[in-house]
Design a protein that fits this description.
About 35% of the residues lie in helices and about 20% in strands.
Length: about 500
């Protein structure tokens, strides 16, 4: 008996097969093998073709089934994780109306600001827990104003996993966690926000049916089974955005628990039982996967768009073809903490929520041509990413979050000792690393949704801790470097 998890990322679609009885991942793979393309037709824009996601998913499904040597009929449930905030629009015949406007696209910012002012700051924060910012509802507002010929044809708008689930099952549905990503979830009414519907000039019929995060959300159709190499009738029983799902993957469900990831974007995500918010809306609040009206579980998140993408830029443009990420990490470790005064602001991937939706770009501050080398640049990039996360974590602490221990997967930027040591030392938190990823987490989530596991404790009983990083005995050099970085940030704001 197996569980299939998909992680629909920006760079690739990953699939994982988990043995439901042992909890072990028996096969995983991802496609494409090079980073999936992002279309940027104008500065600040970012789009992907949802049909490409389906092609990658098909390839990944075939690969893991062949690796595991199983029959598709042995798969008992499917779970979906996905890049958050993407907008997918279809017409009444199910045809795509345009490419998906994805999470790092900034065109919705002025529309979110307009909505924030029209609804009113206090009411908006009290009920949505955020400003509409650059989230999915703001992207839809942009489509309405700039592409009215498309808007008038829309039958349904969906998040990326909603669309993939629709292609698998024929069912169009979403959940409160997903709607909170849109900035459409009214936490007081526990329903779609009437204020946002009025601003959009549409009714709720344009949005999918609301279901629970963990439940039967439709079964694979015979047509989809043939197309994707699955068995007809497999239920989709779980879906969540990548950051709530990353928290689930790391067994983070309850207040005070913290998860972090550092892929294309960097995130620290903690669980709060208090419905609270930042008055400047610099951190995000979403319904966590186990949030209910009577038992609130709010995912408080700081997200930095320019994270792993800065490291990959460094690899392409400075490291050269013959240097791996591991080589870059080794070279970074030869530079001193603080990089002899070099500070890098990693904000080159669109508007940043933590900077009140400003786009200030990436900048290198304090370069000295006589002393700074590639080693300083590589370390400076990693420190800059950590410090940007810390900047958001300080805001999280201001609204009541405690950050003493951080759970993370042993992947992406967390593979770097410099990155881990800097994050632990500047925050004062212990970092615990686990052998998991988003696709494996989605598979375990599917097991919960299908009733194969009776509780998170059962679902994550076999989650393996593979490492632990403690703060440095002397944190002063890290804190001094962070203060220097903050001074550079203030000069650039």
């Amino acid at each position: 008996m197996y569980l299939l998890g998909y992680d629909l990322g920006t760079s690739s679609v990953k699939a994982a097969l988990v043995d439901a009885q042992t909890g072990k991942c028996v096969a995983s793979d991802f496609f494409p093998k090079s980073e999936a393309p992002i279309k940027s037709l104008k500065p600040g824009w970012a789009e992907q073709n949802p049909s490409d996601w389906l092609s990658y998913l098909k390839e990944a499904t075939k690969a893991v089934i062949e690796q595991a040597g199983i029959s598709p009929s042995e798969i008992k449930a499917i779970g979906l994780s996905y890049q958050m905030h993407g907008l997918v629009a279809i017409d009444k015949d199910g045809n795509l109306l345009r490419d998906s406007i994805i999470w790092c696209d900034s065109r919705g910012v002025p529309y979110g600001e307009k909505a924030f002012n029209q609804i009113g700051k206090d009411k908006c924060l009290d009920r949505l827990l955020n400003s509409p910012g650059n989230f999915t509802a703001s992207k839809l507002m942009w489509v309405k104003e700039n592409e009215p010929h498309i808007f008038e044809k829309i039958y349904k708008v969906m998040l990326p996993a909603d669309y993939v689930a629709y292609k698998l099952t024929g069912e169009i549905c979403t959940n409160p966690e997903g709607l909170s990503e849109y900035m459409l979830w009214d936490f007081k009414a526990h329903d779609i926000s009437e204020d946002m519907l009025k601003l959009l000039g549409t009714d709720r019929s344009i949005f999918p049916e609301i279901k629970s995060t963990f439940c039967d959300q439709g079964k694979v159709t015979p047509e989809a089974a043939k197309e994707f190499g699955l068995a007809s009738g497999i239920p989709v029983t779980y879906r969540a955005g990548d950051q709530p799902n990353n928290a689930l993957s790391l067994n983070v469900f309850e207040p005070g628990e913290i998860a972090s990831t550092a892929g294309t974007s960097g995130v620290v995500y903690g669980i709060n039982e208090i419905i609270s918010y930042d008055n400047l809306s610099r951190v995000n609040n979403f319904a966590h996967v186990n949030h209910t009206k009577d038992n609130p579980r709010i995912g408080v998140m700081t997200c930095i768009s320019g994270t792993g993408i800065l490291n990959s830029w460094m690899k392409r443009n400075i490291a050269g073809e013959n240097m791996s990420y591991s080589d870059m990490n080794d070279l970074a470790a030869t530079a001193p903490v603080g990089c002899d005064g070099l500070s890098i602001l990693p904000f080159g991937n669109g508007a940043e929520r933590v900077l009140e939706n400003r786009q200030i770009g990436c900048s290198f501050n304090g370069i000295n041509f006589n002393i700074h080398t590639r080693a300083h640049l590589f370390r400076g990039a990693q420190e800059g990413i950590v410090f940007s996360l810390m900047y958001g974590m300080e805001i999280m602490q201001e609204i009541g979050m405690k950050i003493d221990k951080i759970h993370a997967g042993h992947a992406n930027m967390f593979l770097s000792p410099v990155f881990r040591e800097t994050l632990a030392s500047v925050s004062g938190a212990t970092i615990e690393l686990f052998d998991t990823d988003g696709a494996v987490g989605a598979a375990r989530g599917a097991g919960l949704g299908a009733g194969i596991y009776s509780s998170p404790a059962e679902a994550f009983a076999t989650l393996a801790k593979v490492g632990c990083t403690l703060p440095a005995g002397n944190r002063d050099p890290y804190l001094e470097a962070y203060n220097t970085w903050k001074e550079a940030l203030r000069r650039n704001l």
